[in-house]
Design goal:
Layout lengths: L1 E9 L4 H12 L2 E9 L5 E9 L3 H13 L3 E6 L5 E12 L2 H11 L5 E5 L3 E8 L1 H11 L4 E6 L3 E4 L1 H16 L3
Antiparallel strand pairs: 1-3, 1-4, 2-3, 5-7, 5-8, 5-9, 6-7
Protein backbone atom coordinates (compact mmCIF):
# COMPACT_ATOMS: atom_id res chain seq x y z
CA UNK A 1 0.00 0.00 0.00
CA UNK A 2 1.43 3.36 -1.02
CA UNK A 3 1.41 6.35 1.34
CA UNK A 4 2.31 9.94 0.44
CA UNK A 5 4.17 11.77 3.18
CA UNK A 6 4.92 15.48 3.12
CA UNK A 7 7.80 16.15 5.51
CA UNK A 8 9.10 19.60 6.47
CA UNK A 9 12.75 19.43 7.54
CA UNK A 10 15.60 21.78 8.33
CA UNK A 11 17.58 22.55 5.19
CA UNK A 12 20.90 21.10 6.42
CA UNK A 13 23.54 18.70 5.24
CA UNK A 14 22.82 15.05 6.06
CA UNK A 15 19.07 15.33 6.70
CA UNK A 16 18.12 13.38 3.58
CA UNK A 17 20.61 10.66 4.50
CA UNK A 18 19.19 10.31 8.02
CA UNK A 19 15.59 10.18 6.78
CA UNK A 20 16.28 7.58 4.09
CA UNK A 21 18.38 5.60 6.57
CA UNK A 22 15.30 5.34 8.79
CA UNK A 23 13.37 3.68 5.93
CA UNK A 24 16.31 1.38 5.21
CA UNK A 25 16.48 0.19 8.84
CA UNK A 26 12.72 -0.42 8.87
CA UNK A 27 12.80 -2.25 5.53
CA UNK A 28 10.36 0.09 3.75
CA UNK A 29 10.66 0.70 0.03
CA UNK A 30 10.68 4.32 -1.15
CA UNK A 31 8.82 4.49 -4.47
CA UNK A 32 9.93 8.09 -5.04
CA UNK A 33 11.31 11.00 -3.07
CA UNK A 34 11.59 14.65 -4.02
CA UNK A 35 13.24 17.37 -1.97
CA UNK A 36 13.38 21.11 -2.42
CA UNK A 37 13.50 24.31 -0.43
CA UNK A 38 10.24 25.85 0.70
CA UNK A 39 9.16 29.48 0.82
CA UNK A 40 11.49 29.67 3.83
CA UNK A 41 15.11 29.07 2.78
CA UNK A 42 15.96 27.36 6.09
CA UNK A 43 13.35 24.62 5.45
CA UNK A 44 12.91 21.93 2.81
CA UNK A 45 9.90 19.85 1.86
CA UNK A 46 10.33 16.15 1.21
CA UNK A 47 7.56 14.38 -0.65
CA UNK A 48 7.94 10.67 -0.07
CA UNK A 49 5.91 8.00 -1.84
CA UNK A 50 6.37 5.05 0.48
CA UNK A 51 5.36 1.40 0.13
CA UNK A 52 4.11 0.03 3.47
CA UNK A 53 2.24 -3.16 4.35
CA UNK A 54 -0.34 -1.71 6.75
CA UNK A 55 -1.74 1.38 8.46
CA UNK A 56 0.21 0.39 11.56
CA UNK A 57 3.46 0.49 9.57
CA UNK A 58 2.55 3.95 8.25
CA UNK A 59 1.86 5.22 11.78
CA UNK A 60 5.15 3.77 12.99
CA UNK A 61 7.08 5.49 10.20
CA UNK A 62 5.47 8.84 11.05
CA UNK A 63 6.34 8.41 14.74
CA UNK A 64 9.93 7.54 13.84
CA UNK A 65 10.19 10.56 11.53
CA UNK A 66 9.05 12.83 14.38
CA UNK A 67 11.96 11.53 16.47
CA UNK A 68 14.46 12.82 13.90
CA UNK A 69 16.12 16.03 15.11
CA UNK A 70 15.79 17.98 11.85
CA UNK A 71 12.19 16.95 11.11
CA UNK A 72 9.79 19.82 11.82
CA UNK A 73 6.43 18.41 10.64
CA UNK A 74 5.14 15.22 9.04
CA UNK A 75 1.88 15.01 7.13
CA UNK A 76 0.34 11.85 5.71
CA UNK A 77 -1.54 13.36 2.78
CA UNK A 78 -2.58 10.10 1.14
CA UNK A 79 -6.29 10.44 1.92
CA UNK A 80 -6.47 14.22 1.46
CA UNK A 81 -7.30 16.33 -1.57
CA UNK A 82 -3.82 17.02 -2.91
CA UNK A 83 -2.05 18.68 -5.78
CA UNK A 84 0.44 16.13 -7.12
CA UNK A 85 2.76 16.47 -10.09
CA UNK A 86 5.62 14.61 -11.69
CA UNK A 87 8.02 15.51 -14.49
CA UNK A 88 9.18 12.98 -17.06
CA UNK A 89 11.61 13.08 -19.96
CA UNK A 90 11.04 10.32 -22.53
CA UNK A 91 13.33 9.62 -25.50
CA UNK A 92 11.33 7.78 -28.15
CA UNK A 93 12.32 6.19 -31.46
CA UNK A 94 10.80 8.50 -34.01
CA UNK A 95 12.10 8.33 -37.54
CA UNK A 96 10.60 10.89 -39.94
CA UNK A 97 7.95 8.37 -41.04
CA UNK A 98 6.30 8.25 -37.56
CA UNK A 99 7.17 11.70 -36.22
CA UNK A 100 3.86 13.39 -37.08
CA UNK A 101 2.00 10.51 -35.47
CA UNK A 102 3.98 10.88 -32.21
CA UNK A 103 3.42 14.67 -32.20
CA UNK A 104 -0.34 14.09 -32.53
CA UNK A 105 -0.25 11.47 -29.79
CA UNK A 106 1.46 13.71 -27.19
CA UNK A 107 -0.67 16.81 -27.85
CA UNK A 108 -3.61 15.88 -25.52
CA UNK A 109 -1.09 15.40 -22.70
CA UNK A 110 0.25 18.93 -23.19
CA UNK A 111 3.66 17.36 -23.56
CA UNK A 112 6.40 19.19 -25.43
CA UNK A 113 9.30 18.10 -27.57
CA UNK A 114 12.56 19.35 -26.06
CA UNK A 115 15.08 17.64 -28.36
CA UNK A 116 15.03 16.19 -31.87
CA UNK A 117 17.50 13.97 -33.71
CA UNK A 118 17.15 12.09 -37.00
CA UNK A 119 15.97 8.91 -35.28
CA UNK A 120 14.42 10.05 -31.98
CA UNK A 121 12.66 12.81 -30.12
CA UNK A 122 12.76 13.68 -26.43
CA UNK A 123 9.44 14.56 -24.86
CA UNK A 124 8.85 16.46 -21.63
CA UNK A 125 5.57 16.07 -19.73
CA UNK A 126 4.32 17.13 -16.33
CA UNK A 127 1.18 16.09 -14.55
CA UNK A 128 -0.42 13.66 -12.19
CA UNK A 129 1.48 10.34 -12.04
CA UNK A 130 -1.48 8.53 -13.65
CA UNK A 131 -1.26 10.89 -16.63
CA UNK A 132 2.48 10.21 -16.91
CA UNK A 133 1.86 6.44 -16.84
CA UNK A 134 -0.79 6.77 -19.57
CA UNK A 135 1.60 8.75 -21.80
CA UNK A 136 4.37 6.19 -21.30
CA UNK A 137 1.94 3.39 -22.17
CA UNK A 138 0.96 5.10 -25.43
CA UNK A 139 4.57 5.78 -26.41
CA UNK A 140 5.84 2.27 -25.58
CA UNK A 141 4.89 0.74 -29.01
CA UNK A 142 7.13 3.32 -30.73
CA UNK A 143 10.15 2.13 -28.76
CA UNK A 144 11.20 4.04 -25.67
CA UNK A 145 14.98 4.51 -25.53
CA UNK A 146 15.23 6.32 -22.16
CA UNK A 147 13.01 7.58 -19.36
CA UNK A 148 13.96 9.95 -16.55
CA UNK A 149 11.31 10.71 -13.90
CA UNK A 150 11.48 13.17 -11.04
CA UNK A 151 9.11 11.35 -8.72
CA UNK A 152 5.95 12.75 -7.19
CA UNK A 153 5.90 16.12 -5.51
CA UNK A 154 2.71 17.11 -3.72
CA UNK A 155 0.99 19.04 -0.99
CA UNK A 156 -2.52 19.29 0.39
CA UNK A 157 -4.99 21.68 -1.16
CA UNK A 158 -5.50 24.95 0.74
CA UNK A 159 -8.77 23.89 2.43
CA UNK A 160 -7.06 20.83 3.91
CA UNK A 161 -3.99 22.65 5.24
CA UNK A 162 -5.71 23.53 8.51
CA UNK A 163 -6.64 19.88 9.00
CA UNK A 164 -3.06 18.92 8.09
CA UNK A 165 -1.66 21.14 10.84
CA UNK A 166 -4.09 19.83 13.45
CA UNK A 167 -3.18 16.22 12.59
CA UNK A 168 0.53 17.03 12.84
CA UNK A 169 0.06 18.58 16.28
CA UNK A 170 -1.85 15.52 17.50
CA UNK A 171 0.84 13.22 16.08
CA UNK A 172 3.54 15.06 17.98
CA UNK A 173 1.64 14.56 21.22
CA UNK A 174 1.26 10.80 20.78
CA UNK A 175 3.40 8.74 23.16
CA UNK A 176 6.34 7.21 21.34
Amino acid sequence: MNRILSVIVNNRTGVLNRVTGLFLRRGFNIQSITVGTTETVELSRMTILLDVDSERDAEQVIKQLHKQIDVIKVFDITEQAIIARELVLIRVNSPLSTRAEVFTLIEPFRATVVDVTRESITIQATGHPDKIEALIGLLRPYGIKDIARTGVTAFAREADRQTEGNKANRMQLLPL
